[in-house]
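seq:
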Amino acid sequence: MIIALVNHYSNGNKAHFANKLGVTPQSISTWISRNTFDVDKIFANCEGISEWLLTGEGNMHKPNVEQKRATAERPTKTVADVETRPRIPLNAAAGALSVCLDGITANNCEQMPIIRAFTRYDFTIMVHGDSMEPEFLSGDELAGLYIQNTSFIQWGRSHILDTAQGIIVKYIYDNDDSIICKSENPRFADFNILKSEVYNIALVIGLIRRY
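struct:
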């Protein structure tokens, strides 16, 4: 029984346990060899000890003490521990995507907890307007994967472009020194943008839709 207490409170260190109770290490050794001990000292210095100390039955601690101990030992996540990705507003200034992807949080970019349902992505962005309806609705949150090598652009798919005119979401097609941008909604005409005016391109890899 004493050995169990030493292991529990002092990781098997008899001298440490003796110091906790205010007795000599020799006293602890004597208690162990004779299976006798100072009940009052243990009750006074080992908080929450149950009747187990007297009977050897049941749990070492009272139920409420065990619960408090488990709660205290449970690691607490802080905001810094939560993995996040920036949420970039669609009306962000030109170059905002570069700023966020470089690890410098722009003043108007929220840091949102990572969405585990998606594969790897670098940021999210909220859709505004109806140019990409019905593919994307206003209020949808798109997840974008930054394309570091333009040779991997999947032409014809929806992308997020950080341009000299701001951030846009379109289907894109290669056109020599420019990019053709197409909307899903036929009311919006196609337009070209020079590749030299595109700062970053990200592939749309998923969306969250709120009803």
